[in-house]
């Protein structure tokens, strides 16, 4: 019998080194061969593919866009969720408070309320369109997306807001948020849901554009000074998207004065949408401004649960005791059913003292509050 050769310590280390190197190269070649797009990390592509497959309420065209640019679609879903959270804040004292949008698999368009022509749906269309454009514009500037970067136009400091030429030539452009790409993808991803010849679809697209126009009108310019001892010998400026709450508050004001689509337009296919203020049926319908919200259906009371509207009613909601005209008042929120007072107890830190250095000691105190709950 032949004796097996026994490696010494140095030979054993060399053998293990070359074996690990060969295994690593084989795994790398396997990944390169199986991947059709090597520009994305494998774990990111897997998560994006699952996202496109698992998100509900997407049309066939939207899924095609999602699979085409999965990284951008993932950021768009972040924008939709940001819009849902902001909707909850804006409507926290309304009978309908956007709570039904939470369980719609990151896609509020799957909700039944967005298939209706009411004012709340108009608000949602404008808010979600602005949310998608806002999230993508920021993601481009942060380097999170492969298909875009900083705004190629940059910050144009050669003209003031009135169009007059500036004499200052020491302002340099920083990395501006790419609002143009954000709006373009928002149109590509959301407006594709709508049908060309349907009046409700035309209204939805108008409300989408209204939200994007409001976002565009709130773009901000931020600057940073450079120079010796903090002097502004050189200043870098860039355009940035505003805090989304500012945009949502403006859309909420448009919601309050939304225009009712003229009845004559429901019977013919006019290309220019016209509307009149709510409650003024005798006033003349005028072409809707680009930042106005449009609706054509009366909103329900949202007092009782209604699955057709994804409404859970107002029973059990916290309300405000006081003036009947106050937002969230018990008289309005409870729909005449009355309310009950419930004492809620919680433990909070109190009587805190600071000890040098560096410790804070607090006592535990019981905090009892009486809250009004709708029956």
UniProtKB/TrEMBL annotation:
Principal subcellular localization: secreted
Signal peptide feature range: none
Alphabetical list of PROSITE patterns matching this protein: WNT1
Keyword Disulfide bond listed: yes
Compartments where found: Secreted, Extracellular space, Extracellular matrix
One GO-annotated biological process of the protein: canonical Wnt signaling pathway
InterPro entries: Wnt (IPR005817), Wnt_C (IPR043158), Wnt_CS (IPR018161)
Gene Ontology molecular function: any one: frizzled binding
GO cellular component, one term: extracellular space
Domain of life, source organism: Eukaryota
Family matches, as PANTHER family: PROTEIN WNT, WNT RELATED
Protein name per the record: Protein Wnt
Species of the source: Parnassius mnemosyne (clouded apollo)
Taxonomic lineage from the root: Eukaryota, Metazoa, Ecdysozoa, Arthropoda, Hexapoda
């Amino acid at each position: 019998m032949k004796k097996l050769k026994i490696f010494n310590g140095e030979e054993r280390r060399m053998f293990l080194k070359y074996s690990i190197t060969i295994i690593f190269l084989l795994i790398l070649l396997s990944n390169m061969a199986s991947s059709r797009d090597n520009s994305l990390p494998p774990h990111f592509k897997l998560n994006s593919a699952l996202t496109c497959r698992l998100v509900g309420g997407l049309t066939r065209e939207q899924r095609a866009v999602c699979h085409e640019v999965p990284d951008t679609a993932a950021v768009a879903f972040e924008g939709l969720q940001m819009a849902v959270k902001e909707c909850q804040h804006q409507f926290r004292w309304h009978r309908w408070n956007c709570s039904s949008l939470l369980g719609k698999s990151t896609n509020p368009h799957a909700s039944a309320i967005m298939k209706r022509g009411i004012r709340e749906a108009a608000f949602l269309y404008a808010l979600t369109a602005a949310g998608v454009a806002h999230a993508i514009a920021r993601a481009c500037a942060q380097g999170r997306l492969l298909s875009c970067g900083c705004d190629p136009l940059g910050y144009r400091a050669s003209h003031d807001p009135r169009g007059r030429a500036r004499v200052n030539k020491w302002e340099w452009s920083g990395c501006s948020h790419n609002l143009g790409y954000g709006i373009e993808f928002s149109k590509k991803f959301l407006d594709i849901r709508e049908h060309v010849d349907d009046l409700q679809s035309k209204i939805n697209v108008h409300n989408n554009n209204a939200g994007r126009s409001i976002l565009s009108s709130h773009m901000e310019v931020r600057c940073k000074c450079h120079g010796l001892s903090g002097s502004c010998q050189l200043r870098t400026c860039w355009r940035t998207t505003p805090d989304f709450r500012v945009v949502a508050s403006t859309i909420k004001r448009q919601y309050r004065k939304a225009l009712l689509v003229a009845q004559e337009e429901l019977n013919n296919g006019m290309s220019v949408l016209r509307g009149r203020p709510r409650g003024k049926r005798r006033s003349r319908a005028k072409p809707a401004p680009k930042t106005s919200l449009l609706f054509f259906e009366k909103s329900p009371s949202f007092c009782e649960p209604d699955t057709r509207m994804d409404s859970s009613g107002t029973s059990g909601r916290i309300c405000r005791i006081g003036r009947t005209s106050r937002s969230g008042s018990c008289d309005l929120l409870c729909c005449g059913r009355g309310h009950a007072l419930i004492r809620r107890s919680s433990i909070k830190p109190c009587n805190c003292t600071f000890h040098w250095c560096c410790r804070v000691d607090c006592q535990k105190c019981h905090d009892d509050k009486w809250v009004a709950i709708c029956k």
